[in-house]
Automatic annotation (TrEMBL):
PANTHER family: DIHYDRO-HEME D1 DEHYDROGENASE, PROTEIN NIRF. This is YNCE-like beta-propeller domain-containing protein. It comes from the Bacteria. The keyword Signal applies. Residues 1-22 form the signal peptide. Keywords: Signal. The keyword Glycosyltransferase does not apply.
Length: 317
């Protein structure tokens, strides 16, 4: 009887520890520190700092393989991190200046945008062999994958356009003009709408994610950098670099409904899996602002490293 009792207690302890380890973590690239700060989103504290050389900037998640990919523009490639052990596993050479980075929904591919070579290189995630290099528009930056894993979207900054890539064929299906210098992009959870932050025109372009037709243009703050959706896709959050603010857009009316002051030079933005907390990396203030999407208030500020950028989806489940 006592053996069964202690077995039960031990099982409960293991289950509890597993649930604690399962808390989402935010991976914040600190470009000037050559490091990545790891934030435990439950305690909202930095629990580890991982050294990554090459001026780390972009972040991509492989939830299935428990890996995080960090682009290194001055390292000409990307680093592979273990999202559970918080260690660096590998360093992959791409060439040029890699910035935008993302992974497919099946955890089988990683896409790396080369700012100088005007291309996206595709790697498998088994041994990180190069599969193909796709020529896109000038200075590709932000990327996103559709929920059905059919399309890769690439923002071509200098060309003022977004390319739609067929993931199965690894060929471009369509390219659509948007605002001036698109950078961060996001697709909604239904795969219906694509949102593009246009740095030089101070607005957000809304596209039909399938047909790539323009649906609307929304005026936001100065030099919008990146976007993220929250509250069941009902709100869009946009970082405005030169205003040190985040614009909040109602996706039903496609109107800006609020402007939230955050840290200096906000860049990367990502929504917690609870769909309510929105994390913003502030480049000049070396910290992260946490916004409550329901109250539209900043509820916490977390100190990170120097030059926090976190460009991409950076909160691992």
């Amino acid at each position: 009887m006592r053996i069964k009792y202690w077995f039960l207690v031990f099982s409960l302890i293991i289950a509890f520890e597993s649930s604690v380890r399962a808390d989402p973590r935010a991976f914040i690239t600190n470009q000037l520190d050559n490091s990545v700060s790891v934030i435990d989103t439950q305690s909202q504290q930095v629990i580890e700092t991982i050294k990554v050389e090459g001026k780390p900037a972009g972040v991509a998640l492989n939830q299935l393989k428990k890996q995080v990919y960090i682009s290194t523009p001055e390292g000409g490639g990307f680093a592979v991190l273990d999202s559970e052990k918080l260690t660096k596993l590998n360093k992959i050479k791409v060439g040029g200046a890699s910035l935008g980075i993302t992974a497919d929904g099946k955890g089988e591919l990683v896409f790396v945008a080369d700012w100088y070579e005007n291309s996206v290189t595709v790697f498998d995630t088994k041994n990180f062999a190069k599969i193909k290099t796709i020529t896109v528009g000038k200075s590709p930056s932000g990327m996103a994958v559709s929920p059905d894993n059919r399309w890769l979207y690439v923002a071509n900054r200098i060309d003022d356009s977004i390319s739609q890539v067929d993931i199965k064929k690894l060929t471009i299906r369509n390219t659509t003009k948007v605002g001036a210098h698109p950078f961060g992009i996001a697709v909604d959870s239904q795969g219906k709408r694509l949102y593009s932050a246009n740095v030089e025109s101070d607005n957000v372009t809304v596209l039909d994610a399938r047909s790539m037709k323009r649906l609307a243009t929304i005026k936001v703050g100065a030099r919008p950098y990146a976007v993220s959706l929250a509250l069941n896709d009902n709100l869009l959050f946009v970082t405005n670099q030169d205003d040190s603010t985040v614009s909040v857009v109602d996706t039903a009316t496609l109107k800006q409904i609020e402007v939230i002051a955050v840290g200096d030079k906000p860049e990367g933005i990502s929504t917690h899996p609870d769909d309510q907390k929105v994390y913003v990396a502030n480049w000049f203030d070396n910290n992260v602002s946490v916004i409550d999407a329901k109250t539209l208030k900043v509820v916490n500020t977390i100190k990170t490293g120097e030059g926090s950028r976190a460009f991409g989806e950076f909160i691992a489940r």
